[in-house]
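I'll show a sample.
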Amino acid sequence: MNKLVAVLCLLFCSYAISAQELNCTLVINAEQTGKQNQQIFKTLERSLNDFINKTTWTNKIISPQERINCGMVITVTEFSVDTFKASLQVQSSRPVYNSTYSTPIFNFNDKDFNFNYVEFQNLTLNPNHFQSNLISVISYYVYVILGMDADTFVKKGGTEYYSQAKNILSVAQSSGYKGWAPVDGNQTRYQLMDQLLSPSYIEYRNVLYAYHRTALDEMNSNQRKAKERIILALNQFKKMHARRANSFLQRTFFDAKADEIEQIFSGGQNVKITDLVDLLNRVSPNNSSKWSNIKY
């Protein structure tokens, strides 16, 4: 019996250790090229799905049900031989405790995603060596997804993953591809990571934790209390907004959460929302049409 238990434990542990961290669906949209039926796009799509979902990105033991649900859409606008001009939409979510609902965490469109790819080339990450913009960009966003997900469960829990993403960014800066350097714009991979790791924007990460772990995860057991805690969490944006009004990082939060916030406070148990609506209009004016639907 002891031998059987030992064998089962070994099998289980090996399975858990080998299980990967992401459950990602990546889609290649090449309609704008007029060449969408070419086999290279199907090969690339399959290879990238394997790369993301079969790579072990961390040293954590992950069970299959703990894998992070996420999606990526690569929209190819121009293509010639092995050169791709594209954009990348990245989304991730995580389940809410004791419910069937998944809450959006990250929703971002990277408009500067150009790369080279030869059909059937091997896709592997060497974090200390730039191999291709394709591998670097995808790997960078994998670690962003891991970091943001961790931040929703443990306060500042994503730091180790952001550090991995920053390392990829640092190595890629010499490549000449756009999006990695400070001079490349205000809504880039560089700016995203710079703000995620900066003390000037720490409220963003504090809100991720408080909004999800202390509030949304309690929604099923005490809706009123959960709503009040969401309001308290969002109020932390006041300080960040005072220092860095309408920051890129703050906009990424509301790009992911605006619809959810509107829905949460447009039904169910009533809570005081006057100050909340004023805050939302101040820190996220682009979503004012949604905030106007929050009425009691």
Q: What stands out?
A: The chain has two domains: 19-197, 209-291.
